[in-house]
Design a protein that fits this description.
Elements (H helix, E strand, L loop, with lengths): L5 H15 L17 E7 L5 E10 L4 E10 L7 E2 L8 E6 L5 E6 L6 E6 L6 E2 L8 E5 L5 E8 L8 H17 L13 E2 L2 E2 L4 E10 L2 E2 L3 E2 L20 E3 L5 E6 L12 E6 L8 E2 L8 E6 L5 E6 L11 E6 L11 E2 L8 E6 L5 E5 L7 E4 L5 E3 L5 E8 L2 E8 L2 E8 L5 E2 L5 H6 L6 E7 L2 E8 L14 E7 L17 H6 L3 E6 L8 H5 L8 H14 L4 E11 L1 H10 L9 E5 L5 H7 L3 H8 L7 H6 L7 H6 L3 E6 L7 H13 L4 E6 L9 H18 L6
Parallel strand pairs: 34-35, 34-36, 36-37, 37-38, 38-39
Antiparallel strand pairs: 1-2, 2-3, 3-4, 5-6, 6-7, 7-8, 9-10, 10-13, 11-12, 13-14, 13-15, 16-17, 17-18, 18-19, 20-21, 21-22, 22-23, 24-25, 25-26, 26-27, 28-29, 29-30, 30-31, 32-33, 33-35
Length: about 700
């Protein structure tokens, strides 16, 4: 097809521009991370001529950020312009009206998140919701007469008329805020998630209608004690509900009706836009794995969604199912699995012309775009970099594109030559010396493992010729994830390399993008083949002629942090000068009872702790704690109070074991952060602690 040359053209243009740039570049510093504009969520207009997207600006000085909406022509003929002024707040999730005349978005400009509509013909954005519990992720109906949105409410009020329900929610929130007693009471699991307490609240879908004078009163169309929106990002890729072609129903991703803390059985459900029943029609009840992300074809005749076959396994292969439907979204045929024979796991997707589907998927350390035909023929647009937020308007395709050398930017194409639309970070990127990553293959016990290598700035300069460099050996999280040719504002390989290290990023067993068998092989075996893959990766790194094998450090977060702890109690520790473990898992036995998504632990170990206690102990670092004192590798522990995925006790237990055995160790705790460190000042401090530890025990630079 005419678009298959996209990636080659983009890469060629980028390389040509870099070669022609005469400006003397400098190494990246931590503070540069906060100077970049953070571009997200591009949405192309129905006619394909314009794209609206988010641009977040971070203030390190003020320790906050603000997000505005920008608008650009997809032909690149005019300069992008700022569309909204959030006055220090956040304008997010823009969505075009079906006629292309207005943009719906969420904003915190009034305090709580509410929905606004901005007419492109002129005038100020108008708030269309005023709900005490806030409104988010708004979507238009195909006829433009309704808007659906998500709000988190108390289910006991959800069957009342809206005004009464909203008043009771507001009163309950106010009473809780003013009450000097801050006790929390729980009656079921999943009372907390990621970094916040959910308690007994539920995410429900609401609908409001356009009227001749504005917008009507909102109504809860999914009442009852169940979430009508995924509570875990694992089961979400973009919008999680949609209006049916006739605009009279909603199809959405509902959490499991029972056992939501230990089940992955998300279903597609359907309700009328005036529904009052707590019973929702399940469209995918026959599948015991997860179903999510409903999308109707442009002609309204087909419904597609993602599904997993294995119950309880969040890293199972995702497939795209398609079924013929009636205008009201009811099935008119038998679903067909379009990707059953393909060894790729689709992420986000959208319909294109003639029943074709465009989707992203991890593949060999990158995330290309794939074009899937109705007969399951698959075309790869190209490789290199990471694509996300793909959308189609008319014949115009829009996406975000990021690499290890540049943060995400809006890419638009309507023909063979793509256009980079926003160029928000061109000036800063022109200043920086950002080495290109190298992909290498490492022999492992039954095949090969892909690994990224990133050399430090100045590596190839004449004065550095023949020098040997220290290594930062990074292990990714997940474990079902991957290091990709992508940009990160958390574990940014360029910042690590700029400190004076060769950065090695292996993708061992469990990594996504190398076939489902490779992913599956880590479950129940965290400290087995994956560990040996990583040892093989370190062996390969040590053999590189420019590596100083006496200066190797290792670091990782989440599963990567677990692997640091496993390294520390195994023989590989003898080869490391220091380690950094962030929000890690140290004790599988205590982890099960304190984490929130129980399905993950139970699948990874093969059952409940009291059913198979030996399995929880087999690869748990705490069972070999005595080896910490034997190897005595200096370890920096970072763990945060609001991390409910890998709770703070994991860090406490590890630190106690290290200190009790006289091992050099340092515990850095962020009481106001969760699994990640997101506040600008905290992030800056995190990097200072990490790089100071490296400098002290594994000095940087060529020697």
């Amino acid at each position: 097809m005419k678009f298959l040359v996209l990636f080659a053209v983009v890469l060629a243009v980028a390389e040509a521009l870099a070669a022609a740039d005469p400006v003397k570049k400098r190494p990246m510093v931590v503070e540069d991370l906060f100077k970049f504009q953070r571009v997200a969520d591009p949405q192309v207009s129905p006619d394909g001529t314009q794209v609206v997207y988010q641009v977040t600006t971070v203030s390190l000085e003020k320790n906050n950020s603000t997000t505005a909406l920008w608008l650009a022509a997809t032909d690149g003929a005019s300069k992008p312009g700022q569309l909204t002024n959030p006055n220090g707040k956040k304008d997010t999730h823009p969505r075009w009206s079906p006629d292309g005349a207005s943009i719906l978005f969420e904003s915190t400009r009034g305090g709580t998140g509410q929905l606004y509509v901005l007419k492109l013909s002129g005038g100020e954005a108008q708030a269309i919701t005023k709900i005490s519990t806030g409104a988010g992720t708004g979507l238009w109906s195909p006829d433009g007469k309704h808007v659906g949105f998500v709000s988190t409410i108390r289910p006991e009020f959800s069957e009342l008329p809206f005004a009464e329900s909203d008043a009771k929610n507001a009163a309950a929130d106010k009473a809780a805020e003013e009450n000097p007693v801050k006790a929390k009471t729980f009656t079921r699991l999943f009372f907390r998630h990621w970094d916040s307490y959910v308690e007994d609240k539920r995410q429900h879908l609401f609908v409001i209608d356009a009227t001749p004078t504005g917008w009507g009163e909102a109504r809860d169309v999914t009442p009852g004690d169940r979430d009508a929106n995924p509570t875990s990002t694992t089961f979400s890729v973009g919008d999680d509900f949609t209006f049916t072609p006739d605009s009279k129903h909603l199809v959405f991703t509902a959490v499991p009706e029972k056992g939501e803390s230990w089940s992955t059985n998300h279903d597609l459900c359907r309700v009328a836009i005036d529904n009052k029943s707590t019973k929702w029609e399940a469209l995918t009840s026959s599948n015991k794995g997860a179903d999510n992300s409903p999308r109707f074809s442009p002609d309204g005749k087909k419904l597609a969604w993602r599904s997993q076959a294995k119950a309880g396994y969040e890293a199972d292969k995702w497939d795209i199912q398609v079924v013929d439907v009636k205008p009201d979204g009811a099935f008119a045929g038998t679903p067909k699995n379009l990707t059953a024979a393909l060894d790729v796991s689709p992420n986000e997707f959208t319909f294109w012309a003639a029943g074709m589907i465009l989707f992203t998927a991890d593949k060999s350390g990158s995330t290309p775009l794939f074009l899937l035909s109705p007969d399951s023929t698959l075309n790869v647009f190209g490789s290199g970099g990471t694509y996300s937020s793909v959308g189609i308007g008319g014949s115009t395709v829009v996406a975000l594109w990021a690499t290890m050398t540049a943060p995400a930017e809006v890419v638009v194409w309507d023909g063979p030559k793509p256009l980079v639309i926003d160029k928000a970070n061109d000036k800063l990127l022109a200043e920086l010396d950002l080495p290109k990553p190298e992909s290498v293959q490492v022999k492992i016990e039954d095949g090969e493992m892909q690994m990224w290598l990133l050399k430090p700035p100045g590596f190839d300069s004449p004065e550095m010729k023949g020098k040997k460099w220290p290594v930062a050996y990074l292990v990714h999280g997940g474990p079902q994830g991957a290091w990709e040719d992508a940009w990160s504002f958390r574990w940014n390989a360029q910042v690590w390399a700029a400190q004076g290290y060769v950065v090695a990023m292996p993708n061992p067993r469990g990594s996504t993008g190398f076939g489902q068998k490779f992913v599956d092989q880590i479950s129940g075996d965290w400290g087995g083949k994956c560990y040996r893959d990583l040892v093989a990766g370190l062996d390969a790194v040590e053999k590189l002629p420019y590596v100083d094998k006496d200066r190797i450090a290792s670091a990782g977060g989440s599963f990567g942090g677990y692997m640091q702890n496993w390294f520390a109690v195994n023989d590989i520790a003898k080869r490391l000068k220091c380690q950094i473990t962030h929000c890690s898992v140290y004790n599988f036995e205590s982890m099960w009872g304190t984490t929130e998504e129980l399905w993950f632990d139970e699948y990874e170990h093969g059952g409940l702790p009291w059913e198979i206690p030996g399995k929880y102990r087999e690869f748990s670092p705490h069972t070999r704690a005595g080896n910490l004192g034997k190897h005595k590798v200096p370890m920096l522990i970072i763990h945060n109070d609001n991390d409910f995925r890998c709770p703070i006790g994991q860090g406490h237990e590890l630190f106690s074991a290290l200190q009790r055995q006289g091992v050099t160790s340092r515990f850095v705790n962020f009481p106001d952060e969760g699994h990640w460190v997101l506040k600008p000042k905290n992030s800056q401090h995190w990097h200072k602690e990490v790089f100071a530890w490296l400098t002290k025990y594994c000095p940087p630079g060529g020697r």
